[in-house]
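ingest -> validate -> predict -> emit
validate: passed (alphabet ok, no gaps, 198 aa)
predict: started
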Amino acid sequence: MEDLDIIEESDGYRVRLELDDSPEQPYDDGAPPIFQLDGDRSDYIKGYSAEAFNKQAEPYLDAFRSFESTGRQLELFERYLRIFHGTLSVQDWHVGYSGEYAYLAFDTAAWRESVGAPETVAAEDYLSEVRAWAEGDVYGYIVERFREYTKTYNDGRVEEGEEWELVDSCYGYYGRQYAEEAAREALTDHVDAATEVN
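emit:
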């Protein structure tokens, strides 16, 4: 029997989660600039090579690369961001792990202004979706309705049974907590809609 990740059941409906086995890279126009760093640092002095993980990071690549051979690339780049771009928070994930990608996010004053973010936004975890994506922590929800059925075949046989019928599904939730919240909300919407009809 299949082991289903059922979150909740209500009034003949249920919602379950399913891992998204081929999630897309998170892309959000509102996200702060994020770099993807090459984590292979066998030559410490060489520093990290970087690519823009999102378009917001592209204007800062040259500055980051200019500190490559200093042996203090991350430290100097953070100082540069704070002095010249009004950055309040620089966050990294997976830095120092050899052979794997690392990620660096930062909230420049220009980015905060463009999205209307208050200074308190610096307390947020800018890399939560990236981390979920990289670790395979991406889900979809599936809303199903319980139904009983009767099938009558041409030869006169009658078959009765029951099943869970697909009603709704949506994928691309980065992190289980967000997936569960969306799943419960979707279930409530379907139960409420069915109640209104009846």
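Residues 5-23+137-197 form one domain.
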